[in-house]
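User: Quick sanity check before I run a bigger batch. Here is a single chain. Can you write out its predicted 3D structure?
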Amino acid sequence: MTESSKRPIAVFDIDNTLADTAHRQQFLERRPRDWDAFFAAAPHDPPIAEGIALAVATGEECDIVYLTGRPERCRRDTLDWLAAHGLPEGPVHMRRNADRRPARQTKLEILRRLAERRSVRVLVDDDELVCDAAERAGFAVVRARWADRSAALEQAQEGEGRT
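Assistant: Done. Predicted structure follows.
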């Protein structure tokens, strides 16, 4: 089977799309931000039912790919979390540990790379700037608006390039 004849892919963000980060926002609201504690608490994120259900249902027609702003050092915890919550298997694309570019740049770069090899059916993400950039680039987007918005997380995603 050639790459172009495979099933399309659906690309899912993790934080506040599949995993509820509300319990660890406290680490971003203080100065200086406690990034080690923020990411150390990620294995305890409750699943977001709407996002999980969408990923599982979409996995029946598409191969699932995960695209997160989490740094690479969080890979083992992230893979364990996805498996523990019954999410479809699929590659996980993570931010390089020292990459501090805005999420809208890093995620769009990876999304374009994925689209070179496979048909991307949809991107599901909670970050409005990521969604805007993906739509401008011609990708179909589902805006994951099922989790509470966090100004601290939005600043981290865009301004500090941390998640």
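Residues 43 and 81 are 6 Å apart (CA to CA).

User: Great, the batch can go ahead then.
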